[in-house]
Specification:
Length: 97
Amino acid sequence: MAIRQSATSVEISPEDERKSRLIKYSVAMLIRMACLIAGVFTTGILMWIFFSLAIFLPYFAVILANNQGPAQPKSQSNAIAPKLTIKPEQIRVVDES
């Protein structure tokens, strides 16, 4: 028997996931370009920091963009509704005549 799918357990659509990954990667590459430009116009240890960030940032950008986890953490609970049981001794009949 197939498991019924709940609307709360639906993941993000592939199109939205691709868009999110593209935005993350684009932001990381913009930061890389800023590091390259800053590295050209600075000297000393700051120049080396900017150039090293520009060299290693693509690796981390790909890892960040290709993270396959869900965008939102799943907060789905497997709650089971309790069954109401009444024993015959608990039933009381009130006659108002």
